[in-house]
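Ex. 9. Protein: DNA-binding protein.
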Amino acid sequence: MSSQTGEEWLSLREAAEILGMHPATVRLWADRNELPSRRTSGGHRRFRKADIEARLRQESEPKADPAAQLLIQSVLGRVRFAFTDGTLNTLPWYQHFNDAARDAYRQLGRRLLDLLLRALTDGTQAALLRTEAIELGYAYGSITYTSHVPLADTVRAFLYFRTLIDEGVLQVAEIRGARDHDLLWLEGLHQIQAITNEILPALIEGAQGEGDSSTRN
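Predicted structure tokens for DNA-binding protein:
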């Protein structure tokens, strides 16, 4: 059904068929004002096709796995604790990072966590994530180079925080347990390892002043 404004309207049954939902579910969404609708003079529900298509796109968008969010929160908690309990200040390599380098590394750390979250929620972008991981490694290396931080200390820092990530992974794995339907999530964990493995070589090259990833194949 089309209105004079050119909008196409659908019946409850038609809207439910497009969404792949039971009509009762669509009716409930409308009752809760989660889905716009109007009633005809006879009391029948009508839905704009544009609204139904928008809802369909929303339902099809990938949603972050709760375990992925838990993993990121676990890693963040460990990193924050390392900063607040004074552990980092006791490590000799940490003393070689000036304030500017520490701030820059924190910003890159947030980018790394974003990469890890995307690896868990969108494994189809593996090639893109790998490219971004290499670029991130060069960014780490560039900071090391310009701040005159010893390369060995930068590698120690990377391995330290890599350990925090690994511990976060183990914690989440213990919480979830070994279940068959977690196979796709386990593939995401392999992707995390692949990402961090790409970062370290790029970091070393960048720290040696060997250019950036945009100049390499």
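Check your answer against this statement. The mean pLDDT is 79.
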